[in-house]
Amino acid sequence: MNKLKKVLQAYGTILALIMIVIVFSILRPKSFFTLRNFINISRQISLMVIISIGATLVMSINEFDLSIGSMASLGGVISALMAVAGVPLSLCFICPVLISLIIGWVNGWIVARFSVLSFITTLGMRTVLSGVIYRLTGGATVFQDIPKGYSWLGTFRIGQIPLLSVIMVVFVILFDYVMRHTVLGRRLYAIGGNEETAKISGIRVPFYKNIAFALCAMLSCITGMLIASRVGSANTTAGEGYFLSSYAAVFIGCTVSKKGIPNVIGTLVGCAILGILTNGLTMLQMPTYMQDIITGAIIIIAVIIQKIGKR
Amino acid sequence: MLLQTKHLSKQFNGIYALKDINFSLDSGEVHGLVGENGAGKSTLIKILTGVYTPDEGELLWNGQPVLNNDPIKSRKTGISVIHQERTLVPTFDGVENAYLGLPYPTKGGRIDWKEMRRRVSETASEYGIDIDLNKTAAEMSPPQRTCLEIVRAMMNECSLLILDEPTASLTDKESELLFDIIRRLKQKGTSILYVTHRMDEIFRLTDRISIFKNGEMVERIETGLTDRNSLIAKMTDNWTAESIVRTKEPGKSLLKAEHIRSRDGIVKDACLEVHAGEILGLFGLGGSGRTELLECIYGYRPMAGGTITVADRQIPDMTPEKAIHMGLALICEDRRGKGLIGNLSVRENVILNCLDDYSGNGIVSEEKEKNAVREMVGQLQIKLAGIEQRIIELSGGNQQKAVFAKTLMTHPVIFLCDEPTQGVDVKTRAEIHRLLREEADKGCGIIFVSSDLKEVMEIADRIRIISAGRTGDLLENNGITSRQVLSCCYAM
């Protein structure tokens, strides 16, 4: 029993992922368990993985950012509007990133400087950003006169492999390295573990909070631009759908780590679980409401199993 | 006799916190409860108010044995306590706070606010308490909150009111108001158990005094029949430390703090100086501002005034980052809250203060880091399964050693140690003492804070007294007795 507990605690979430794959492979061997489908899944989850890495960063300092969805939408809208206006494409993808860094910095500054709960700060920011989006677009999707080249990032394939999947892998490797092996990552975890201890250890807590929020906003913005590039238009609420599932992925991801803390690889596993469920259940022609019920239940079960293992 | 305890005992981990206490208290008397830190006063209060259940002995209320095993029962019996930490709901107004835990009067199914207000203000005026009941607790000043708590206690038909250091956050003028109220309560027949470190209040207010020492009740005495000096003598063992053999005379001044005031007003005017090769004891009773003073020096707690000079350089706007850079180290009293990060590994904790030394271009060089941590862990003989073990899984003593390991990594020259041996076993305690002495012999300066006077006298070369946020006498620890030290504390 003890051994079982240990195994569950250390590998429970990954075992769950493998089980889900096995079940779908048995039920739909010809369509699910194919290389093509897995490449397909990697593309389907790529956008969620990138925005979820952002959520992982703010959760590593024990804060929340509720504005990631609208930040993503705003990123897509600004970038698409610039493309329509004829701005060189490279600038269309760089300027929104700079704007997002500033917005994230402001989030962090308000949280750290005035000790306002990040929950409330970013809830406010979310509304502000929605307002800005409306001002820019009048509520309409931006799709007319977008140059052809704009869609390149979101649709290009290297042989069989979508560029989006490659971008996802690059971000995962980069931020996994940052969180585990750099001073920045270690300090973020220190702040998340115990802010007071971090302060006494000479860590400039407000500065690092700013960085976490800024990077989170940047990753959200990049996600939003990639969504716009992929579908060739910028919807005013394109990012909102990613908001809740990205936090679900981070929470599942915490259970992958022995310490129970947010981590990039865990977040990837979380996204994979959610993505494969959607993919497989769709193949089984499960109605959407059933998919919701099963996905929700699995998120809760994953966390319960880890809590049991910890005791 | 209103309250009596018979052979009351309470143990924690096999150590007596209270032993065979036969305490008694009459109706309508003001009874003082005095003793050093750890004498058992708080434990007694917690038993009387139902927070702790005694291991042995019984409690008699008006001559009848009572089972007093939960705070609500205790309040119903008629015992109320007013702590330093107040128990009001900040957003409720005076009337609602006074009614906490009482059934609200109703009229036709609706709360009868008028009746509530009438009853509360009636009770308040009965005891000469004049506060604005429309204000919320958050808007009230500390003395107003104390008054409100008294009103609440009296709404409960309280016949024994326990006041635990009630004047700690009050000014002299505000204290006078409180004393007036106490006198009025007494006239109306309410008994008061008055717990304080302040001797003049004991002599002004009380009829009788119970003296506690090391968990035992030494004596009960009529206030009129004793004086300050003999009372202090009874509270202490009058213990003399073995003279410390100093290997070196203290060298140059390492740290000088002058007229420190903290922004929250807890530290009012504190000065101290520590020299190379010296262990300076900083001793004060509970609430004296010793922890807060160290935190101000380290730049963790905001200051309102004063200067800090490290190695002859005045440092404006000290921050923890600067402090570490200047060679300061702070060992916090609150180990779990401020000393370590529980869910991270021993390695990640130990390296925390000096991550920059073990990294280049923002990337941590892990081999170097692991070796350094292993070496430090070996040097301090920290017992663990491996440096990747989560620090919270270590025993208290080993956790504290890990905290020391963390600070030693930056090679500090000035140690600010706040209760560094709290919650550690005897062996580790001796090891920590030895470690600090070794560091002092190497030319470091050490400030050692403890609420355990014996410990301070065991290790310190000199002792600085702190009381109510102000530093006082500097005593050479050379044949002085604990009574002399305490006299200095109480004299302030």
Q: Low-confidence spans of chain A: pLDDT under 50, at least 5 residues?
A: none
Characterize the biggest β-sheet of chain B: 6 strands, mixed
- Output the strand order for the largest sheet of chain A: 1-2
* Biggest interface and residues each: A-B, 22 and 32 residues
What is the CATH T-level topology of chain A? ABC transporter involved in vitamin B12 uptake, BtuC
CATH architecture type of the largest domain in chain B: 3-Layer(aba) Sandwich
Estimate what percentage of residues of chain B fall within beta strands: 25-35%
Give helix % range of chain B.
25-40%
Could you describe the 3D structure shown?
The complex is a heterodimer of chains A (311) and B (492). Helices cover 77% and strands 1% of the residues of chain A. Chain A has 311 residues and is an all-alpha fold. The radius of gyration of chain A is 20 Å and the shape is globular. The two termini of chain A are 12 Å apart. Chain B is α/β, with parallel strands linked by helices. Chain B folds into two domains: 3-235, P-loop containing nucleotide triphosphate hydrolases (Rossmann fold, 3-Layer(aba) Sandwich), CATH 3.40.50; 253-491, P-loop containing nucleotide triphosphate hydrolases (Rossmann fold, 3-Layer(aba) Sandwich), CATH 3.40.50.300. In chain B, the strands form six sheets. Chain B has a six-stranded mixed beta sheet with strand order 7-10-11-4-12-13, with helices on both faces. In chain B, strands 19-22-23-16-24-25 form a six-stranded mixed beta sheet, sandwiched between helices. In chain B, strands 1, 2, 3, 5 and 6 form a five-stranded antiparallel beta sheet that branches. In chain B, helix 4 crosses helix 5. The longest helix of chain B is centred in the middle third of the chain and has 16 residues, at 172-187. Chain B is globular, with a radius of gyration of 25 Å. At the A-B interface, helix 8 and helix 9 of A face helix 10, helix 11 and strand 21 of B.
